[in-house]
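Recall that a protein's primary structure is simply its ordered list of amino acids. Everything else, from secondary elements to tertiary packing, is in principle encoded there. The following example makes that idea concrete.
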Amino acid sequence: MPDPQTQRPNILIIMSDEHAPMFTGHSGHPVVKTPHLDRLAQEGVVFERAYCNTPLCVPSRMSFMTGRYVHHIGAWDNGTRLPSDAVTWAHLVRAAGYDAILAGKQHFIGPDKLHGFRAQLARDLHGESHHPLFAWEEGIATAPHPWPSLAQAGPGATAEIEVDDLAEAAALAYLRDPARREQPWVLNVSFIAPHFPFVVPQKYWDLYPPAEVDLPHIPPGHLEQRHPVYRRMSRMFGYGDFSEELVRRGRVGYYGLITYMDDKVGRLLAALAETGQRENTLVIYTSDHGEMAGEHGMWRKSNFYEQSVRVPLTVSWPGHLPAGHIPQTVSLVDLVATVLDITGAPQVGPLDGDSLWPLLRGQSDGWKDTAFAEYLAHGVAGPMAMLRQGRYKLNYSLGDPPELYDLAADPGEFHDLGQDGAHAAVVEELIRQLLAHWDPFELEKQVRQSQQDRLLIHTVTTGQAVGAEQQQWYASGSSAGGKH
């Protein structure tokens, strides 16, 4: 197998938004149609246990850009900016002689819209928007009405569809430009789909008759037995007792957006083949986090259930990487380390991940088999973290009992073993490992101070009460216009 640092392949990173990996054809889903992602998976390497490092748009993407955990870069929530002097993988691959280009969403809020990329070929709709802040000291608010996005689901057009089409067109033009032969490149094409609103062009809506769409699997009594953190979060986001009709409509829209996005993946792959670049282009498909889609009675993300915190991750380079599935646990900071490894980029600062290149070549000995995620934003009133190691997943919420799931025996996460005496040693060991590098008490101080600083600045500079923004956030379904 050739050395990537001497061959210097191009890299096409396709990043979607809010795509949980179980909602693909190649994962065995009985309804969702993803022929192009299925083909990419068939010819590539599929990571079966890939995780984001925080299940929320801005902090997840800033972690992805830097290869650092959120608590190392202070990207607490959707309202915290990445400093312009923070080194990103885009800076580093350009230092290695690559062209680094962005087309579409990377959710860069604030004045810096590039963070190391040479250019933005399209438009970052969500990066243009303002995000309300929910201060932890105010506790968990109660939504004034049920989450409206399910009632809004249907066929149609949105600003999100418009900018995704623009991102695709700009990326295709870039790939077809003869100048691509002059310099190795890393193109990050990033789509908003399948993020809500669950509105999709008519032909994709029609692919999924509501009566044929599967419903979430929720065992009797499960919602009442969920961990307190999920019950509080459901209260804030307005996840009530939605009718079967609304749940089906929400899933129709979500599935339609997945297939809409999948078609774009197909056209990008076709452009690589048409221009003779597929042989020397490593293609990566992933997402910033997942979508609950009604499982466990929840929607959106912001929690550590598999549908929220796991992400798809496929790496394809036919002729250079053997196709197959990798069962070891990895996360997006590992993907960043891999991109830097493959491009031969200089390492000028610490990374929190490890290169996946040995795993991609079939060398699994010594792999850490661990993923860490944290959540420090709205919907909670204190720091939360997850540690996935081997078959177990520990969820830690400051002030709450720990959760433990044996994902080998209980993949649906319906049986919390956190208070099971037979698993006390496992819980104790995973908490020890977690707290060895993650201090929830110090983080709580930092996050609360950041929230108060930003609330003060907002009030002084705008003269507006934050409460009005929060009401608009609820009323809109926290979807378009940056209200996430």
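The chain has 17 helices and 14 strands. The longest strand covers residues 324-331.
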